[in-house]
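A reminder from the course coordinator: this example appears on the midterm review sheet, so study it carefully.

Given structure:
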């Protein structure tokens, strides 16, 4: 196995907001802008469909590649390698949403994808620096989740509602109640509800276990409202204009 796939990578650890991190974040932002402009101007529906299917395939294939890498390096385990973190679930929800264009799945994926994947893009749960395989896999995985949400919103034209926000929040909590006993059963830390991640993250500033779980609830809900805000503000403006027009009439 090449050194760039080795678990004992010796050519540098990941540096939070280092040069390679900043470059990849800027690259992802630029690619998403170009994607939206391109896809909005595409007249051939087959091209749009091909892009959606291709992005869905990328999401699934990168997850398969991660499991193959873990198996080949002897690091795969039930406690750590199942796609049961929020982003792991979002990978498959995003892929299915892209293929089926299901609005019900989009309602959940919008919040799970953006609130769940943006944070790991900013503070990845990985110590492997550029150009190790895991460096690319982490950013491809979370970047593609964000792109899927952006595509379904700005290209397909879906949008979340306030009801969607509460659906996603309640489903997240229901999922946590399922994962908690599973963690105890297998010795896992899915959703990071048993201990903080080993790499620096927002959780480090939320207090000790188990109190940081309550902080995560609050922060998660705040993030949900942040990503809903553009639509909520737009709705308020539309209502205000309508009432003003009715008052004038």
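Designed residues:
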């Amino acid at each position: 196995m090449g050194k760039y796939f080795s678990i004992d990578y010796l050519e540098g650890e990941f540096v939070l907001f280092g040069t390679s991190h900043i470059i990849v974040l800027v690259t992802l932002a630029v690619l998403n802008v170009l994607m939206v402009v391109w896809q909005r101007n595409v007249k051939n529906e087959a091209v749009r469909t091909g892009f959606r299917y291709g992005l869905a395939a990328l999401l699934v294939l990168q997850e398969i590649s991660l499991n193959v890498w873990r198996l080949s390096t002897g690091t795969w385990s039930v406690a750590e390698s199942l796609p049961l973190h929020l982003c792991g679930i979002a990978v498959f929800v995003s892929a299915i949403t892209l293929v089926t264009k299901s609005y019900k799945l989009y309602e959940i994926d919008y919040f799970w994808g953006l609130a769940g994947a943006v944070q790991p893009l900013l503070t990845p749960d990985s110590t492997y620096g550029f150009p190790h395989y895991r460096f690319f896999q982490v950013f491809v995985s979370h970047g593609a989740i964000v792109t899927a949400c952006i595509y379904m919103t700005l290209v397909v034209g879906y949008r979340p509602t306030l009801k969607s926000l509460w659906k996603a929040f309640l489903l997240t909590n229901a999922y946590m109640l399922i994962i908690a006993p599973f963690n105890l059963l297998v010795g896992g830390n899915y959703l990071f509800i048993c201990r903080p991640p080993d790499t620096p993250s927002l959780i480090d500033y939320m207090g000790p276990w188990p109190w940081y779980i309550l902080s995560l609830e609050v922060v998660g809900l705040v993030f949900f409202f942040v990503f809903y805000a553009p639509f909520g503000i737009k709705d308020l403006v539309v209502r205000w204009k309508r009432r003003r027009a009715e008052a004038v009439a």
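The radius of gyration is 20 Å. The chain has one domain: 3-248.
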